[in-house]
Amino acid sequence: MGARRYPAISIHPTLHQPLFVDWKREYHDEFRCPHCQTGRFTAFQYRQNATCKFSVRCNSCRKEIRLTCKVPGVERKHPPISTHPTLDGRLQINWKQEYQGEFSCPRCQSGQLKYFIHQKNLMCNLALKCKSCRKNTNLTCKVPTQIFNYASNISCPNPLCTQLGPDGHKGWIYRIEHQISPYKCYFCHICFNPESKDSSSWVGSHNQLLPFCFEEDIWDLRHFYQNPTAQTLKFATIKSQWYRLVLKKYFYSLLESKVYNSVTNIINSQITLRQFGLIVEQRKLQHPHDITREIMLSFFDLCQTNKTSTFHKKLSDLKNFFDWLDLNTSYLLRRRDFPKIRKDDVDWLDEITRKAIKQNLNKIPAPIARHYLVQEYTAARTGDICQIAFDCLVEEDGKWYIKFYQHKVNRWHQLPATREIRQIIEEQQNWIQQTFAPDYSYLFCHFRVIRKLSYPDFPNMKPLPKPPRVDVKNNPMVRIIRWLIEQEDIRDANGQPPLFTGRITRSSRLQEVRAKHGIEAAQLYADHVRSSTTFVHYTPPTREQVASVDLPFQALLMNPDNRFLPWQSLPESLLKNPKAHELDMEITPRLVVYGHCSLDPKTPCPYNLYPKCYGCSSFRPSTEKLPLYQRQYSAEQQRMQKAQAIGAELAYEEAKTTIEAMDKWLNELLRLANE
Questions:
Q1: For the whole model, what pTM was predicted?
Q2: What InterPro entries has UniProt attached to this entry (predicted)?
Q3: Structural domain of residue 48, as residue ranges?
Q4: Are residues 133 and 182 in the same domain?
Q5: What's the total number of domains in the chain?
Q6: Which residues are within 8 A (CB) of 57 and not within 5 positions of it... i.e. 6 or more apart?
Q7: Which of 474, 562, 603, 618 is most exposed, with minimal Cβ within 10 Å?
């Protein structure tokens, strides 16, 4: 017989060292089979993929006994050692040495926890298996972060958190891995920095207002404004030291002189000048007089992606800053640099949308619904409603009014309060009193933990003792009303989902007042000094209203039936003011020809293409259109110069032809007009 591929040698781990047994040499068939009690173990077998590779087989019953089973707990691949984090360090327990089987199974209450199990892909790797019910009990579950990172010397700054931690402190505070807010409360889940001095932070909001210090890089705006929407002005991100000092002096002069009624313009102006500071740092400027026209062009390139209105506002902020520095502003900022702003048409919610929103308000939290109803009724600006006082209901001569402060115009305004809106405000006052301390002075509050998936109940929504945020992304009322419109599939009269914003309630309410009571009532309701402000920016007439009034006059003036029309039959308003019914239509100057054509209407035009009309012998200019001709002439000159600069030959030839044609009659027309 040849040599065995796998010799009959078994290895047995012991507490000291492995034990090798050569069964071929040391075993002489002395073991009797425990299964049949008659045969003897004579044949050796080797299984390569089995845990116990060597076994011996009975020559009678042919059953096997394994020879290389591992001793439990000795040289295990995963030894039964558990690690437990504690406040003082890590505790390691060797269960094989220290555990004597004294634990009963917590599941069946009768069996003994005896066998060690290693669970490779589970969070709790080591477990004890019950001898009776065969269920596992984990031994190495991770200790939660709030246990081993517990900060016993810090209390929760959230005034609504009332639970006590293990040491009796307010809240359960523990450390987390976060650079800005490294601590978190286990009860109310807020994150904060206990060393923060920012007045808008959890900790800073409770700090007393310290004396103003010009040298600090964070200014508390409460020194200059009462209840500002943004409470800090930060300069730390401005790297250039001289530029930072100049900005501090500039903004201090603005704050002291109260140039702006609210902090919004201050914050926006600082954003612009901080962005300009990037150019200052990049070009390494050392003095305000180093600012040149080339620097301004670099700033224009930086603002290429801005909207027209945003870019116009930035240029205005820079112009004010340069005027304060006494620089040559007209050279740095040209008049042509300011883009023309075209204001969009006023948008409002139609009656169908408003009714649909009110019918579904019972599905959202009551404080949010009351916030919408009060803002919709008063037609107040979003910031004014967010900071409306708790005691906004006032009684004068037996009548009730809603009184609130208008931050934009810096004056008080009051509106008559109906019984329904009075009841809504009183319900909100009762809710505020039950939720916050008596010293909370606002009618509405901010909320946190508002998620779209929680609509419509929002069970995790928590009130905070501070006014609601004004911006659309963070205002609780605007966010929830938008979700209400989306989830309830609310659509306007055109079948389109309306876009709800915080300020749309003002124009919607004023449009409703104007339709029922007239423009004068809408002006008083909005507290506007001039009715034109109400008419242009909030309640312009609809196209249907313009058509119903103006189309009859236009039809009369056009006289399509070519009937005799005595001048006495013209409208009285037209006789008094010939421009009373003139429609102001904005048309690009290059797309229209001003004047008359002497050709017979039945004769086809030989050119039929602008701008060749101005060079045609049949064209008759009019002195009444002289300002329009001059505007066109100037525009064509600029167009020709630009086309020549960029090499656009077709546009250059077209503009040149128009200018040459207008030169033949424009000067003579100007002379006739001046006679």
A1: 0.53
A2: DNA_brk_join_enz (IPR011010), Integrase-like_cat_sf (IPR013762)
A3: 9-65
A4: no
A5: 6
A6: 41, 42, 43, 44, 45, 63, 64, 65
A7: 562
